[in-house]
Specification:
Layout lengths: L1 E6 L3 H12 L4 E7 L2 H8 L6 E5 L7 H11 L4 E6 L3 H10 L4 E4 L4 H12 L7 H8 L16 H11 L4 H8 L3 H14 L5 H10 L4
Parallel strand pairs: 1-2, 1-3, 3-4, 4-5
Helix pairs in contact: 7-8, 7-9, 8-9
Protein name: Response regulator transcription factor
Keywords: DNA-binding, Phosphoprotein
Pfam families: GerE, Response_reg
C-alpha cells in the first residue's frame, strides 16, 4: 500500500485529491494538512511514502519546504503540484529534490500514475515536459536531463553506480582519489543531493546512466 500525505491549504482540493487517489486499491491517504507547520508536525508522527505538496502552501514557500523535507525526512518522496504551468516551476522543483511535478490542469489519471511512479523512486514528468527537456533549445540536439554532466562526470557516476569505492574509481579512470572526491561533490551539487544513496537514486531516475 502506498501511503500518501496531502499538503494543501484548500479543504476542497484535499478532499478531491483524496477521493481520486483512494479509488485505487494500492493507495491510502494517511493524512492531509493545510500549512507547513502542520506538515512537519505530522511527519514527526507518521511516515508517508509520498508527500503531495502544493507549491503555494502558506507559511514557507514550496521550494523552501521541499528542501527542508529533503533534509529532515530524506526517505519521503515529494510530488509537487501547482496551478502554475510546468514552464514556471517544474524544472526548479525537480532540481531542488522533488521526484515529480504536476500541474493542477493535468488529467486525473496523471495523479495516480504520478504517485505510483514517485513512490517507486522514479521521476514523474509529463511527456510534453520530457520532450522539452530532452533537447537543447538552441541547437535542437539531444542533451541529458536538466544540467549537463561532463563525459568524465558520467564515467565517475557509472562506476559509483556499479558499487565501486572512490579508490577503485580512481584506479579505473587513472585519476587520484582526491580528484574522484571532487567529481563526486560536483555530481551531488548538480543533482541537488547530499549523500551517495540519493545521488545514485536521483541519477537513475533521471536516466543519467
Amino acid at each position: 500500500m502506498i501511503k500518501v500525505l496531502i499538503a494543501d491549504n484548500h479543504p476542497i482540493v484535499r478532499l478531491g485529491l483524496k477521493q481520486v487517489l483512494e479509488h485505487s486499491s494500492d493507495i491510502e491517504v494517511i493524512a492531509d494538512v493545510s500549512t507547513t507547520t502542520d506538515l512537519f508536525e505530522t511527519l514527526d508522527k507518521i511516515s508517508p511514502d509520498v508527500v503531495m505538496l502544493e507549491m503555494d502552501i502558506p507559511e514557507i514557500n514550496g521550494i523552501a519546504t521541499l528542501r527542508k523535507l529533503k533534509q529532515e525526512y530524506p526517505s519521503v518522496k515529494t510530488l509537487m503540484y501547482s496551478g502554475q504551468s510546468e514552464d514556471v516551476y517544474a524544472l526548479s522543483t525537480i532540481r531542488a529534490g522533488a521526484f515529480g511535478y504536476l500541474s493542477k490542469s493535468a488529467d486525473l489519471d496523471y495523479i495516480v500514475t504520478a504517485v505510483r511512479k514517485v513512490s517507486q523512486g522514479n521521476m514523474f514528468i509529463t511527456n510534453e515536459l520530457a520532450q522539452r527537456l530532452a533537447f537543447d533549445e538552441g541547437t535542437q540536439k539531444p542533451r541529458r536531463f536538466f544540467r549537463k554532466l561532463s563525459s568524465r562526470e558520467v564515467e565517475v557516476l557509472k562506476l559509483l553506480a556499479s558499487g565501486k569505492r572512490n579508490k577503485e574509481v580512481a584506479e579505473g579512470l587513472n585519476l587520484n582519489e582526491k580528484t574522484v572526491s571532487t567529481y563526486k561533490a560536483r555530481l551531488m551539487k548538480k543533482l541537488n543531493v547530499d549523500n551517495l544513496v540519493d545521488l545514485l537514486q536521483q541519477a537513475k531516475a533521471l536516466e543519467l546512466y
